[in-house]
Amino acid sequence: MKIGVVSLGCCKNLVDSERMMGLLRQSGHEIVSDVHEAEAIIVNTCGFIEPAKEEAINTILEMAEYKNENCRKLIVAGCLAQRYKADLEAEMPEVDCFLTISDYPKMGQILTRVLGEKVLDGYGKNTRLVSTKPWTAYLKIAEGCDNRCSYCAIPGIRGGYVSFPIEDLVAEAKQLASEGVKELVVIAQDTSRYGTDLYGRRRIWDLLTELNAIDGLHWIRVLYLYPDEIDDEFVTGIKDLKKVIPYFDIPVQHGSDKMLKLMNRRGSVESILRTVKLIRANYDMPVLRTTMIVGFPQETEEDFQMLINFIKEVRWDRLGAFTFSNEEDTPAYTMDGQISQEIMDERLERLMTVQNQIAQENGEALIGKTLEVLVENQDGLTGYYHGRGIHSAPDGIDGLIKFKSSHHYQPGTFAWVKVTKAKHHDLIGIDVLDAEEIAA
What we know:
The protein is α/β, with parallel strands linked by helices and 440 residues long.
């Protein structure tokens, strides 16, 4: 059977989609990228915040139109299905099956019944069908979350934190490396907590040590590190792991202690600043990335100014910010002091104006530096190669490095580039080999 899979939301959801596709391919089905050809379509949804839910609903309705062509079965999986299954079943009769996350262990049986063709059991135990660029892949090391931030619906959707065994993760990473993956991106809702449920203590450093020893991997990037779990042992320990790049993705959410407490975030602004200082004391050129929420209930102008001052003090290399999304089934949903969308949007604009200036200045500070670049493509019109340095994760948020070279680079190979210009979040440079030849 020809099956199309549409994956929405975060990279953690993408791994689930890749596991579905691997299971289907192992069962003898053909995965097609053109939904016009698909006899069945699976939409793996996000249901985290309102914009993601809207995107999911619109995508489902769009895919339902293909039932007028070749598509015979439309299946909706993922967070939206988990969170709103009963409501969706009542409102969307064009969908043949809502496959919740709780159903995943029985995915083979359910899909066999819905599709009318055999799908094997064993979801998550088969080889994934990697859908990212072939040199980069995500490694999801845990499911769920125990942090219980007051704005977040994830624990209610995905359940509590469950670490996957180290031996299974190492075997998966070795398989990915054997298929040509050079950049492994380690993910979970909270990577820094890895192992606490399974082994009784944090074992993220142990896991990274084993991943570091895998032949073929060149970069190991870790996302979603919570600040209160980053200590001296972790920061100094990974310095010895040469493949683990100093890219610290630390979602802190705010710069006011009052707001952090209302959000049920562990730690304080002072502790976050200590963590930043620790990282910068141990690395010459670390990358610090974070996310912020503006407009959380009871955020005053004074709180917002504290956030701005905090951003100016830390000078994050990468920062994403979002207006508060009021989600049912979270403690924040009924909090007093809800902020109007107009005020939230205005604060977001002010925040990003400050951050964009910081990002530009941080980029300009890299002029003259030599950076290793993972080459991903070449622009046919300008001839510039496009790639990513350690400053940029593969999620399309962090910007690119663009460079010219008289030498030929295949996508998925590495080059050394001397930075000559910074433009917003992108860097522009020249191949070091060319620079040396010009100097000679």
